[in-house]
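Project outcomes to date are best conveyed with an example. Our students and postdoctoral researchers have been running inverse folding experiments weekly, and each run begins with a structure described purely in tokens. The record below, which covers 180 residues, was selected by the lab manager from last quarter's runs and is presented without edits.
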């Protein structure tokens, strides 16, 4: 009885059915290995800007089967390039809101309270007709003194592109020093 059991197992492992199962298992393992290589390449392209490093990561993921992707996961950059760019844009926007940003003409840093750029004298904002505080271009009323904003001379978005803006760029008036 035991001999017939082992002879049945022996016959199964030498049959055509076992050869098909073995070929399918090998094909499945190769497909999984190719899938991990594809995943590592796709992930590296989203995380690494240099194409040579992407190729190196792909080769490193392919060489030791199933161990390469694990090594890649340990040493890959922690963020996607898109997330890094988005974070940098957010930081620039926050710095622009807090510090006032830069002059659109000469790129020098300007404060949020500046009416003109101190370097190139480009008009950055208009002043309130009542309290003389700087106004943003979209404001309809001065938030400081509640005076309605008149649209007599709006500030252009790109001063270097318009002729009237170039005419406005004049040297600031000098104060005379008079003894008190």
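After processing, the design step wrote out the following sequence:
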């Amino acid at each position: 009885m035991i001999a017939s059991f082992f002879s049945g197992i022996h016959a199964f492992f030498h049959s055509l059915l076992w050869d098909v199962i073995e070929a399918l298992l090998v094909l499945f393992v190769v497909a999984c290995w190719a899938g991990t290589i594809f995943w590592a390449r796709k992930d590296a392209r989203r995380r690494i800007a240099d194409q040579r490093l992407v190729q190196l990561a792909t080769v490193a993921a392919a060489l030791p089967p199933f161990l390469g992707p694990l090594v890649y996961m340990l040493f890959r950059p922690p963020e996607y390039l898109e997330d890094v760019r988005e974070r940098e844009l957010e930081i620039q926007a926050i710095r622009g809101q807090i510090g006032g940003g830069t002059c659109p003409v000469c790129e020098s840093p300007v404060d949020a309270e500046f009416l003109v750029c101190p370097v190139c004298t480009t008009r950055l904002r208009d002043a309130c007709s009542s309290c003389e505080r700087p106004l943003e271009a979209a404001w309809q009323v001065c938030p400081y003194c509640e005076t309605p904003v008149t649209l007599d001379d709006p500030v252009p978005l790109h001063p270097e592109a318009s002729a009237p803006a170039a005419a406005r760029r004049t040297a600031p008036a000098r104060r005379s020093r008079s003894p008190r």
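The longest helix spans residues 16-47. Strands lie at 126-127, 134-135. The training component of this project remains on track.
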